[in-house]
Amino acid sequence: MKVGFIGLGAMGSAMASNLVAAGHAVTVWNRSPAAAEPLASLGAKVVRTADRAVQGEAVLSMLANDAAVREVFLDGGLLDAMDPGTVHVNHATISLALAKELAEAHARRGLGYVAAPVFGRPDVAAAGRLNILAAGVPASVEKVRPLLQAMAAKVWPLGEAPERANVVKLAGNFMLAAAIESMAEASALARAHGVAAADFLEVMTATLFAAPAYQGYAKPIAERRYKPAGFALPLGYKDIGLAQAAAEAARVPMPFAGVLRDGLLEALAAGDEDVDWSVLAEVAARRAHLGD
Amino acid sequence: MKVGFIGLGAMGSAMASNLVAAGHAVTVWNRSPAAAEPLASLGAKVVRTADRAVQGEAVLSMLANDAAVREVFLDGGLLDAMDPGTVHVNHATISLALAKELAEAHARRGLGYVAAPVFGRPDVAAAGRLNILAAGVPASVEKVRPLLQAMAAKVWPLGEAPERANVVKLAGNFMLAAAIESMAEASALARAHGVAAADFLEVMTATLFAAPAYQGYAKPIAERRYKPAGFALPLGYKDIGLAQAAAEAARVPMPFAGVLRDGLLEALAAGDEDVDWSVLAEVAARRAHLGD
Amino acid sequence: MKVGFIGLGAMGSAMASNLVAAGHAVTVWNRSPAAAEPLASLGAKVVRTADRAVQGEAVLSMLANDAAVREVFLDGGLLDAMDPGTVHVNHATISLALAKELAEAHARRGLGYVAAPVFGRPDVAAAGRLNILAAGVPASVEKVRPLLQAMAAKVWPLGEAPERANVVKLAGNFMLAAAIESMAEASALARAHGVAAADFLEVMTATLFAAPAYQGYAKPIAERRYKPAGFALPLGYKDIGLAQAAAEAARVPMPFAGVLRDGLLEALAAGDEDVDWSVLAEVAARRAHLGD
Amino acid sequence: MKVGFIGLGAMGSAMASNLVAAGHAVTVWNRSPAAAEPLASLGAKVVRTADRAVQGEAVLSMLANDAAVREVFLDGGLLDAMDPGTVHVNHATISLALAKELAEAHARRGLGYVAAPVFGRPDVAAAGRLNILAAGVPASVEKVRPLLQAMAAKVWPLGEAPERANVVKLAGNFMLAAAIESMAEASALARAHGVAAADFLEVMTATLFAAPAYQGYAKPIAERRYKPAGFALPLGYKDIGLAQAAAEAARVPMPFAGVLRDGLLEALAAGDEDVDWSVLAEVAARRAHLGD
User: Fold this and answer.
1) Which side of chain D, N or C, has fewer Cβ within a 10 Å radius?
2) Residue among D97, D24, D87 at smallest CA distance from D61
3) CB distance A269–D255 less than 8 Å?
């Protein structure tokens, strides 16, 4: 299929490379052109302006946040450059409000829109093993299914309203943060009673919590090494904010989200910008005045 | 080995039956004698008074809480009925304060003491697949290791001070409660935006949270069926209280524990006594005024 | 002095009437003209378009929120209709971000800008007994001081940067909400042990908490009557959100603010729109399943 | 009236001195005799054993906590040394559980029992200006009313069940702690935006929060001086624990209490033992990484 891909950060590059590998004709665009070079060497066509990347049957995008999506697709007029019938697959983790606004803007122009946020870090994306949440008009989802399958371990259909996929993504990221905080507090308790965090977490992640979410974050907590960041603290803070905004819109009290907000804010106040969000464990340890 | 077993609730009975099956000579006692009958039919010797169950090389006990352990072993004078050198293996989930008091009381009398709380529900115990946390003087732990292995998928050594095993158990149960609450809040958020809890939890427990703790509790939450209780609400509340007491003793702030305390208290205030503690999901739904 | 007044809700009308009474030549404008009639009868000049209300030496405004302020003054081009040297006194409770944006927009056009949020409800405003927080360039503040004094029990100078007055207002409203929540939880505790909320609150507000903030909100809580609203629930929720946004900008964890957000959200979820924000007491009572 | 007074700390000494000044024949006892000397010089009779202090018509006691009350009155057998008809007035801040146990123990022996916890610090007690909460059998309360009035600005009758006075005291202390925490968080927010805590708190405590509770604690927060302690941190932590225990008994969720528990615990973890509990302001400032 002739497809465009917009947004070539670590995630986007890995995802686009799997599309190329699956034999699709992929045209890529990124704000800073350097990021596109590796994909060119794999066989993707690199273009200088975004409008030239939206001429295929489908356009996939993996941008950083609401502001980037809004700037490129809405303010930048990119939707007007697409032919009717083109399907836009938006992989970004965005607010429900923007999700709804985008769905309407696409529909108004006769464009397809599929919300397709993903679970998985860059290494998982590179292996083509993402879990992709997909919501949109059935015909649109069906059209892009081969593309999604080229990048995914599994595609999870979530119905017609695009924001359904986004709320699942936000609720899932909230659960990740909660898992981290629960390890953080529990490890502080264990340490304060003489049990090393590594010993405690080894038991937990080999038994009740033998799941990727826990095993992945237990490692930096046990080793107290938060760089390089698997998922950067400011992004984590942003996502909890998106979950809280979604909760506000539907009037859902979420006390754990409030605790997470404060913990992440405390980590940011400590100057920890360029670290993994599992640095929540250091916040918990500082509050208990556990020494190094 | 000649062993005694005290406390034949659902857990204790399942554990004792595995000792019998492994060929040990097991003498059992329970406050209400009826619970001992099935074990008699398996080949255990049933006695009428607790002191007659503590005459072997080791005594294992699985009692409900601090009060029961204190009553049977300390107030009841059972320790004085044991021969020096006997090792007492205490499987109960108890406070760190009682754990230390018991360790001293045993040492004073020349008795061995091993703290050995377990992870796993009755069905896991029946299958001999518990995870057993074990802490105590090495010689004592070594002596009872064959007994523990007859009941366990794995025995996790946690050092010499018995309360180390207890704090790991309490921290682990806290993490379970936190996992439930995070599913509760996230599911309320999903439901409020039109995604069924079952659909949301299916994605989560098949991907990032593909672990026993999540899969086990996702089921009652998705089905909104909290009876029969896998782990009863009042016991869960008690265990969070024990974790908070351990946190207080070592001065460890645990904001998630505070949220859990209030959520469980709210469930109890609603009159939910005889239900699984995953009923926290109903608390979250009520707060958001989600209809049935 | 020749002054304009924009925004004639309950607060603005009461404030403008005191300016008239003090002998100032007041021109008023309100989006819906009916609200201006009572002021006309007092001697104010009523105009049909906002630009005609900004021709004096000073313009005071009391609008509902960020959106209204932005629409009237920034998007509506009203700043361009003012003569250089005119001082705009903004009494609204707005975000720190908008406060800074407004200060810059005024400075760029040679206009004065004084942030002057107030403490006090409509009856206090009518009595000319408001506490007015004032921050801005000293010359601007001095120029409008007679106007402020005509409406105030006391004017509190808070320095040059306008957002300083706004942060004090937001922090103060946060403290009000915290006072309500503390009465709500404490009253629930008292009621649950057989002491009527009215009896409990009578003791408190006559002794340790003999302050307007407590006495004013103890009344609806004791009587369980939340209509008419002294300060409406949705406005209270909005203000806690502004405080949280200010906290986010400066990275200040505020756990009480998180609890308040959830409590107010729970009240909103219960359908309580048109009530006083002290309805937090009903949220606390419902959580404890206290009957009526 | 011939009365005994037990417990001569700062509060008890000040209270007993007012009884002497009012012309009552006061016999005093304190565990460490040195504390009784100033009272002897005022005219009180000092005795060496507690049983000799309980021979009057009434016995007042002001002991530190549950443990001290239990030791002196229950374990020490002091109740058996009193003549039937003697009324014991217990001024201590104790748990509801102990309050009920004491009421029953007194009734069984034909002794009167009045729970009479107080609001006010030592200087207020010395001035005879305490607010005294009084609950007990009416005849007992009437009998000791002249004594209470000699020490009080006002006596607040709270009915017959003694624990009613205790729950009001605990709920009131919870409200004090909440007032401190709200000033702590609000001051951190103000400071982070450039407004000194002293400036912020001056506005608040002169306007909406012009009450003793706020004015008293605003001073140490503004000056960042927490010694000498007006109310010591460990005592404050204890009282929040008593409030939580009362909430647990009646199943009342109290999220603010949970936040306070963690804040006080964090202060204790920082090694702040001998300080006022308004040191919560330093906890809030540390979390926001505000410099000195």
Assistant:
1) C
2) D87
3) no
Q: Does one domain contain both D135 and D31?
A: yes
Interface contact flag, D250 C159, Cβ < 8 Å? no
Give the model confidence (pLDDT) of B264-273 as tens digits: 999 999 997 8
The whole-angstrom distance between B257's CA and the closest CA on chain D is 9
Do C118 and C192 share a domain, yes or no?
A: no
Please check whether residue A115 is in contact with residue A99, taking contact to mean a CB–CB distance below 8 angstroms. Answer: yes
Q: Which entry of A45, A154, A169, A227 is annotated as an active-site residue?
A: A169
- Contact residues, chain D, for A270 at CB < 8 Å: 289
Q: Which residues pair with B156 in a beta bridge?
A: B133
Name the token pair of C185: 């939880």
B153-175: pLDDT as tens digits: 999 999 999 999 999 999 999 99
Report pLDDT for A76.
86
Chain D residues closer than 8 Å to C259 by CB: 255-256, 259
**Closest residue to A251, CB basis, from C248, C259, C265:** C265
ipTM computed for the complex: 0.96
Choose the final residue of a domain: B160, B187, B209. B160
Q: Answer yes or no: do C288 and B266 touch at CB < 8 A.
A: yes
Residues D117 and D144 in one domain: yes
What pLDDT shows up at residue B292?
A: 76
- Catalytic center residues of B: 169
**A35 and A136 both lie in a single domain:** yes
Q: Both B188 and B105 in a single domain?
A: no
Which of C185, C283, C287, C290 has the highest number of chain B CBs within 10 A, making it the mutation to test binding with B?
C287
Task: Please check whether residues B67 and B127 belong to one and the same domain.
Answer: yes
Residue C200: the pLDDT is 98
Let me know whether B203 and B269 are in one domain. Answer: yes
Alpha carbon distance D109, D111 (integer Å) = 5
What's the total number of domains in chain D?
Answer: 2
Q: Nearest-CA distance from A95 to chain D in Å? A: 27
Give the per-residue pLDDT at B273: 84
* Residue C292 forms part of a structural domain: no
Nearest to B125 by CA among B274, B237, B230: B230
The domain that holds A241 is classified in CATH as 1.10.1040.10
β-strands B2-6, B25-29 pairing = parallel
Which residues is C6 bridged to in the sheet? C29, C61
A18 with A118, same domain?
Answer: yes
Reported as a single tens digit per residue, the pLDDT across C177-191 is: 999 999 999 999 999
| Domain C-terminal end among C161, C177, C207 | C161
Q: Which of D242, D254, D262, D287 to mutate to test the interface with B (most CBs of B within 10 A)?
A: D262
Contacts of C183 in chain D (CB under 8 A): 175
A81-95 CB burial, b ≥16 within 10 A, e <16: bbeeebbbbbbbbbb
Residue range(s) defining the domain that contains residue A262: 167-287
